[in-house]
């Protein structure tokens, strides 16, 4: 990520990385979607590193409450941003562009599922989806807070995270159907993407003007304040990639998503009543 610190989230960073590995600089052409692939690689690498961290700390996690486990997981992931924090608003802006937002939403869903699994979540009802939607909102809002945090060692960020977990996870007040869950996720993502637009707008001009994104007319403002329907669909199809009943590392293929619309998911939820978890394992 040292190259990203110097050249930010750009095609130039991809070219420099290729050169460092002994490839010609034009090798960046292998990444047809441009700088967003660098952002996605970083997110995927962080998820893999987080998984290793959680596995290593399994015994420590078992001695914690569920809330403490969630805080541990979110903090461990956010601490991975520190080396690139100065440039991350630009990475977030690229990830929030309409053509990239569905993929970003799926990765956030994967992150939430990973943390909840190691927090010991064994739910097989609608709360499986709701918990992940809530945690996605907690993670995203804390990430945004961290970008502006000037306190020593991000003390204010961790205090903010503690408050968000303690105040927001009210699992007794759950939406009554999956459409409500998707609506909640949509509102949360809309707020996050709008905040990214406001935060990264002044900073992202340079990276966009120096990348293929410059071909998109006014790409930052194109994000706007409305989450594309495809993002809601991505969240709906991304969250159950690991089932409710068969969550676990064995199902954590980085891109193992199943395309399911809300009707199909609702139908699956209706089958959960009375079925043994082993019979639902995919």
TrEMBL record:
| Residue ranges of domain COQ9 C-terminal in the record | 102-172
**Cellular location of this protein?**
Mitochondrion
Gene Ontology molecular functions = lipid binding
Question: Which Pfam family would be a valid example here?
Answer: COQ9
Biological-process GO terms, alphabetical: ubiquinone biosynthetic process
Keywords from the named record: Lipid-binding, Mitochondrion, Transit peptide, Ubiquinone biosynthesis
Query: Quick one: which pathway?
Result: Cofactor biosynthesis; ubiquinone biosynthesis
Spell out the coiled coil positions from the record: none
This entry carries the following GO cellular component terms, namely: mitochondrial inner membrane
Keyword Mitochondrion, does the record have it?
yes
Q: Known NCBIfam families for this protein?
A: diverge_rpsU (TIGR02396)
Q: Which family does it belong to?
A: Belongs to the COQ9 family.
Function recorded in the entry: Membrane-associated protein that warps the membrane surface to access and bind aromatic isoprenes with high specificity, including ubiquinone (CoQ) isoprene intermediates and presents them directly to Coq7, therefore facilitating the Coq7-mediated hydroxylase step. Participates in the biosynthesis of coenzyme Q, also named ubiquinone, an essential lipid-soluble electron transporter for aerobic cellular respiration.
**What is this protein identified as?**
Ubiquinone biosynthesis protein
Protein's organism: Phytophthora nicotianae P1569
Q: What is the lineage of its organism?
A: Eukaryota, Sar, Stramenopiles, Oomycota, Peronosporomycetes
């Amino acid at each position: 990520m040292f190259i990203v610190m110097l050249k930010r989230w750009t095609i130039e960073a991809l070219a420099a990385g290729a050169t460092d590995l002994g490839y010609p600089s034009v090798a960046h052409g292998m990444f047809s979607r441009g700088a967003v692939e660098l952002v996605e690689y970083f997110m995927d690498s962080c998820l893999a590193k987080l998984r290793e961290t959680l596995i290593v700390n399994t015994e420590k996690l078992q001695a914690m409450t569920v809330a403490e486990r969630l805080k541990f997981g979110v903090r461990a992931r956010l601490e991975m941003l520190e080396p690139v924090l100065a440039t991350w608003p630009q990475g977030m802006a690229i990830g929030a562009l309409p053509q990239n937002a569905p993929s970003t939403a799926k990765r956030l869903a994967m992150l939430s599922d990973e943390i909840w699994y190691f927090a010991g979540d064994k739910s097989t009802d609608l709360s499986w989806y709701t918990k992940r939607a809530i945690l996605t909102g907690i993670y995203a809002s804390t990430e945004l807070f961290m970008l502006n945090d000037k306190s020593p060692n991000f003390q204010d960020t961790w205090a903010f995270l503690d408050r968000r977990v303690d105040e927001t996870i009210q699992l007794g007040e759950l939406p009554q159907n999956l459409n409500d869950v998707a609506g909640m996720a949509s509102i949360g993502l809309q707020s996050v993407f709008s905040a990214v637009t406001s935060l990264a707008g002044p900073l992202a001009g340079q990276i966009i003007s120096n990348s293929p994104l410059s071909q998109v007319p006014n790409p930052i403002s194109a994000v706007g304040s409305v989450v594309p329907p495809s993002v809601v669909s991505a969240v709906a199809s991304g969250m159950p990639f690991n089932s409710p009943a068969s969550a676990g590392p064995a199902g954590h293929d980085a891109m193992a998503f199943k395309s399911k619309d809300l009707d199909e998911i609702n139908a699956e939820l209706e089958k959960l009543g009375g079925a043994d978890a082993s019979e639902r394992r995919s």
